Structures are given as structure tokens and as C-alpha cells.
Amino acid sequence: MFSFSHRYLVVFMVVLLFVPGCGKKTSTSKPNIILISIDTLRADFLGCHGYPRPTSPTLDKLASKGVLFEDASSPSPWTLPAHVSLLSGLYPSRHSVKDVQTKISTDIPTLASILSRHGYATAAIVNSLLLDEKFGFGRGFDHYSRIPETGDAVGCSPAIAAEAMDWLLKNRNQQFFLFLHYYDVHSDYSSLPRYEDQFVGPYFGMADGTTNQLLQFRKGHVKLNENDVKHLTDLYAASIRQLDDELEKFFSFLRKRKMLDNTLIVVTSDHGEEFLEHGGVLHGRTQFQELIHVPLIFQGLNLPRGRRVEHMVSLVDVFPTVLALAGVGVPSAIDGVDLSPLWRERGFEPPMRFIFAEADHNNKKDDIKRAIRQQRYKLHYDILTDKTQLYDLSEDPGEKVNIISEHGDLSKLLFKRLKDFMSDEKAGQSREVLAPEEIQKLKALGYLQ
Fold first, then answer.
1. Burial tier of 437 (Cβ tally within 10 Å: 0-12, 13-18, 19+)
2. Cα–Cα distance measured from residue 429 to residue 143, given in angstroms and rounded to the nearest whole number
3. Cβ proximity of 393 and 376 under 8 Å
4. Dihedral (C-alpha) 151, 51, 284, 83: value to the nearest 10 degrees?
5. Is the pTM of this model over 0.85?
6. What is the CA radius of gyration of the chain?
7. Cα–Cα separations (whole angstroms), residue 168 to 19, 162, 422
8. pLDDT digit string (tens) for 354-379?
9. How many CB atoms within 10 Å of residue 10?
């Protein structure tokens, strides 16, 4: 028989169940996480990075309400290795996924595999063959979906958002990690007429923004002049605005359903795009800033509003930062660092570090160009020619003036650090043999010759 005290305790517990807020997630719950990667998006084509045309009102607003890293770099100028780095906190030489014949080793912890072990519902909706599950990206995700990339004006973003919204509605009552990858900004540079009317001026040349034509330029079969390049950048800008508007629809969905409470949003890109700044087009072959300077925005979780961080950071830092914000232990054997002290601690000065860029493709030999950076100075190294170039990004952000002859000691230091980094390269894990249709697709996209 219950005593009076036992009966009182039972009644008290029953009452608690009906107190508003009891039994629901509280502010101390683990945060929800939405990570968005926009393929081929250059940082300097966004308004929040100073671009004068209205390409990115949605992303600009997100940055104004959160933390914008002004100087974020990708560790690789193409999709596959860059995304493995984003999701593992490792440089390509450490995770070893440098070509389409390799995949993520099962002994490498990924963001999804860790969060899943800590009770998160996990989903990914991606838009590229290079993020297919065959490369190991599906590990740790409860739901993994790849929507094939297309070259049409509409793009795949509405389908990605629709699937994402459906999954969120089904999983909104538990902590979730959602990874979205958009391919719309990648060539072919194509958008709906209303966006081209806004961004594309009169033009009577032959440049059409297709991947095929840009690949023909690489082979020397097509010539491009300044007017052609202006037209290509107009098309590129229009495609950014089209995707930006699609993102606003997705964020509006989240706001209306109160799904942004206790949610961390991270938006970034895997690499940029080249428009003859150093003689080339597309991406994947060099480590210049037009290819590795990418946007990186954190918003939500009571992060400071409008904070702009000037310090040099890398995509490998996203992995440990997200885990730290989620209150999850960060593996020690990674290359990235937790960035949250940069906004949490006033006057915080991070220790001196070097960041690296590597894993280019489709040169005479894959992965021949590497770069190392220490704050304002960046050293490029060509393995085939054994030549080095040094640039001062503060004085020469376009990397036009090689100052290596003026800074011999610094060049030697950077080169030694780069060689030490290269000497610690890990062997990759082979994936299954590429299917004929995969080979054809990767050739059409310029990822295979």
C-alpha cells in the first residue's frame, strides 16, 4: 500500500507531465544541425564578401545574423576530396580520397557516423555523382539520397528542398543532422530567364557557359576573350541568385514551422571557379584563391550576430567546430581545429598555424600542385617542375606578383613545412571499379580524361 508520501510523489510526477514544456527538448538539448554545401561557389561573388551585384540576399542575411569567416579556404579545388575533408576534418593526404578510384576508409570517423552514435537522426540529400555512396559518404546516415545533377536552367534545388522538408517533418521531434549539397552553381552556367535578364547583359559572342565548351577551351580548341569571360561571369552570377532564392524558400519553411529553434546552420562551398585569372577555366587544376577561397557562415545557437572573423581558417575546421557546438567529443587525430573560441572569447588570438591545399586533378599527373599558407603568405609548389611561387595575399590578393626572390628565408620555412606535410601522406582505400556510365559522366564533367 502506498504511504501518503508515495501518493504525493506520484501526483507530483503526473502534474509535471502536464506542465508546459515538460517532456520536450529544452535549451540544453543537443542542437539540431543543418550543413549546406553549395558546389563551385566562390566567396567573392557574394554580397557579404563585397560583390556589388545582388547575387546573394539570402546568404547575406544569414551572415548578418551569424558569424562570417572572411578568409576560409578549401583544402582541394574539386568536389570529391574537398567534401571528404569537410566531413572528416582531415586534409586529402590524410583521408587519401584524392581521385575517383578511392573511397573514405571505414576507420575514418565522419560527422554523420559520430553524430549518429550520439543519438542524432541523420540524413543527406546530395546532387553529384562525386558524392555517391560508393565513395563512402553514406556511412552514418539513416537516409542518403543522391539526385542526379542536370545541366538545365531549373536545376535540382527544388527537388532537394522538397525531399529535405519531407524528411524534416518526419524527424522534427528528435535531434537531427541534415546535410544538403547543391550543384546548381556548377557548370553548365544556366538559370531561368528572369535571372539571366537581371544579370546577363547584351552579348553577341560564342561563349555559352557549358562544361563541354569550357573543356574545349582547356584543350586549346576554343579561344575566349575578355567579353566572353564577362558573359560567363554574368551567367555564373545569375545561377548564384537563382539558388539563393531557392535557399530562401527552404529557410522560410524552417521559420514558419519553428524549426530553427536550437538549430545550427552552416553554409559553405567545396571550391570556387576560375575565369581566366590565371589562364584557366572551371576548377580542379590549381590552388589559387579563386578556387580555394570559399564562403563559410555559422548561424543559430545564440551565436553572435554580424560577427566577421578575419582569421585564416580551413574547411577541415568545420568538423571539429560542429562537434564542439553539439557537445560531442572531437577526435584527436584530425587536422582541423575548433573555431568557436574565435567568436566566444573577445580578443582571442589563435596559435600560429599553416593551412594546406592539394589534391588537384587532370594535369599531366594527378595531384601535382600543392600550396601552403601562413597568414598573409602563400607558397605554391609544382611537383613536376619543382618550381615554387610565393605571394603576399595582403598586398596581392590576386596572386599576380611572385615575391619568392625577396623572401628567401620565409620561402624555405614554408617549403620545409609543406614537404613535411607531404611526407605524411596516407594510402587510400580502393572503391569498386567505375561503371561505364560513371566513366562517361565523369569525363563529361571534366573529372576524367
1. exposed
2. 24
3. yes
4. -80
5. yes
6. 23
7. 26, 10, 42
8. 999 999 987 777 789 999 999 999 99
9. 11
d(CA 348, CA 400): 32
Domains present along the chain, CATH in parentheses: 32-353 (3.40.720.10)
**Cell numbers 582531415: residue:** 90
Which are the contacts of 106, defined by CB distance < 8 A and separation ≥ 6? 136, 139, 429
- Element spanning 265, H or E: strand 263-268
DSSP per-residue letters across 62-120: HHHTSEEEEEEE-SSSSHHHHHHHHHHS--HHHH---STTEE--TTS--HHHHHHHTT-
Residues in the chain: 449
Each residue's pLDDT tens digit, 405-445: 999 999 999 999 999 999 988 888 898 888 898 888 888 88
Can you list the positions of beta strands (E) in 271-417? 274-275, 281-282, 293-294, 296-299, 307-314, 355-357, 369-374, 377-382, 387-392
> How far is Cα 273 from Cα 260, in angstroms, rounded to an integer?
31
C-beta separation of 258 from 226 below 8 A = no
**What is the 8-class DSSP label of residue 317?**
G
Helices 79-88, 318-325: axis angle to 10 degrees equals: 30
